[in-house]
Amino acid sequence: MQRQTQYPRHLLRGFTLVELLLVLGLLVTLMGIAYPSLAKFRLEQQLKQGAELVRLQMKQARLRAMESGLEYQFRYEPGGKQFVVVPAEYSAIQAQQQANQHSGNGKPQSVYWKTHGKFDAKVKFSTNLFDQGIAPQPLPKEFLSGFERPDDLSRASWAAPLIFHADGSARDFAMEIEDEKGAYVTLSVRGITGSVEISQMLRRTRR
User: The domain spanning residue 151 has which CATH number?
Assistant: First the structure.
């Protein structure tokens, strides 16, 4: 005959309401402590991802310029979230398009590359280091054909162009990307090589 194990009565009782409330209160307190750190980490990750996106597109502009022999310009929106990469000279675009139309099959094809990007997160281009005080300027609409909402893009205020030349060079250049909490990174271009680097994340001191 199997014997049943007898446990003390105090080990069999369930949790009391007070104990459950204490545990719940502890969990809420821990979440309250951890949430700001988690939110800060998420925002910093968004900043890093945004900077990496821009770096990759600038790198792509340099490679396209070297492959095609066509100069490309990078433009960003100071204080905003957008950037574009398009050919630097529209006359060169027209000439290549006309030459392509008169090629073997007579069918016009895309002969140049371009891209448009926008930060979705709480990240933007800083107005600090803004190209030696050069005023923002619009970008002619003809450069923006093929993009979604080209009229809106042509009305935006863009920084002076950073040109990537066919030999891979550019000019010495720096800009900042920042989040709403004061963290920022700097993207630097070395003119002689056209290489793009991202700095470590820094934080502005608030006065």
Answer: 3.55.40.10
